[in-house]
Amino acid sequence: MHSPKPNSKPNPDIDWPSELYRILKAADVKQMSYVPDAGHSQLIRLFSADADVNTNVLTTEEEGIAIAAGAWLGGQRSVLLMQSSGVGNCINMLSLSAIGRFPLLMLVTMRGEWAEFNPWQVPMSRATQPSLEAIGLKVMRAETADDLVETVESAAALAYESDQQIAVLIGQRLIGMKKW
Amino acid sequence: MTVESQLDRRAAVAALLKDRGDLLVVSGLGSPTYDLHATGDRDDNFYLWGAMGGAALIGLGLAQAQRGKRVLALTGDGEQLMGLGGIATIGVAQPRNLDIVVIDNQHFGETGMQASHTGRGVDLTAFATACGFAATATVRTLEEVQRLAGQIAEPAAGPRLFVIKVRAENPPRSLPSRDAVFIKNRFRAHLGFAAA
After folding, report:
1. Which one of A149, A174, B59, B178 has the minimum C-beta count within 10 Å?
2. Where are the transmembrane segments (chain B) (predicted)?
């Protein structure tokens, strides 16, 4: 598990969505699927404008789990973007990644945990990490932009090189620093 | 409602895949997986034993990764009904090398043969048409399936969905390996990718 260093300060100068895009491109990601979240909007724009990456908008997040498995069967790496409420939609489909040991990298923006205005986001927020771990995923978490960039780089290597199923949770404290 | 088809599902799938060439096939859990295995176990088959609702979308990811090959998601009515949203996602993605074939017995055959939505008026081809699929059809006879086999071998302008109405029965099970890692690595090796 990653956690912020005790003295680390948020660094608002880091353009973390662009950094994540750079890391994922360097990792040879060829497919990206998403259910939108405001916190992912810049990363979605960057991938959508990239003709070398196949981007799929989903009706529900579990579709992305299946697409990722198909992409890997066909020799391509992929990434799946969602917010924490979408994790609940994924649980049974994650059986596929777990039992088939398919590489999986999910980037999950957290809602319902930090200065949240919508109480309906809170229950699934609380269930996000336990339910992912219950179905067998490795959960990594970042609270600062520096830590997030390093965490996603490490998660990408674990997923694609070591056939692991990984969810990186992006703390709402970090997302909140961005202007929506 | 709909008149029940008398077509034998094993005969239909055998006719559909008789001259499949280098077609890559993903099968939905339950009977479609047994039907596919009954036509002969092959490296370019990926059998599902779970992940209900995912067959067509695994097909999408595969089709996007392998643009030069044709991909078939062979599934059942219950499996596809659980993935209705995926038809919308595939309609938006517009892969030209992905076909979905639904072996439709209008029942949940694995769980006691309860009637499904497709026997009560829900039309998956109409849904696919509304989602922008390039072609759809419903067939009920072996002759029509044989013509369909020729059609799915031809290039398409976009994704296609075909429903094969079959008799509601459970033929003797034909069971492929349930080891998904083995089936995955065998499939990837067939396409030239080394096991990790």
Report:
1. B178
2. 46-63
Nearest partner of B181 among A72, A136, A87, judged by Cα: A72
Report yes or no: A60 at the B interface, CB cutoff 8 Å: yes
Burial (CB < 10 A; 0-12, 13-18, 19+), residue B154, is exposed
A96 in B contact zone (CB under 8 Å): yes
Q: Given B52, B57, B83, which is nearest A70 (Cβ)?
A: B57
Q: Which residues of A49-72 are buried (b: 16+ CB within 10 A; e: fewer)?
A: eeeebbbbbbbbbbbbbbbbbbbb
Cα dihedral across residues A85, A86, A89, A92: positive or negative: negative
**Residue whose pair of structure tokens reads 């003797």 in the numeric block:** B172
Domain count for chain B, please give it. 1
**In terms of CATH architecture, what is A16-175?**
3-Layer(aba) Sandwich (3.40)
Longest CA–CA span in chain B (Å) reads 51
- The residues spanned by each domain of chain A are 16-175
Indicate the helix (H) or strand (E) that contains B186.
helix B180-190
Q: What residues of chain A lie within 8 A of the CB of B188, using their CB?
A: 72-73, 75
pLDDT tens per residue across span B119-129? 999 999 999 99
Q: What is the pLDDT of residues A31-88, one digit of tens each?
A: 999 999 999 999 999 999 999 999 999 999 999 999 999 999 999 999 999 999 999 9
The 3-state DSSP class for residue A171 equals coil
Nearest-by-CA chain B residue for A72: B62
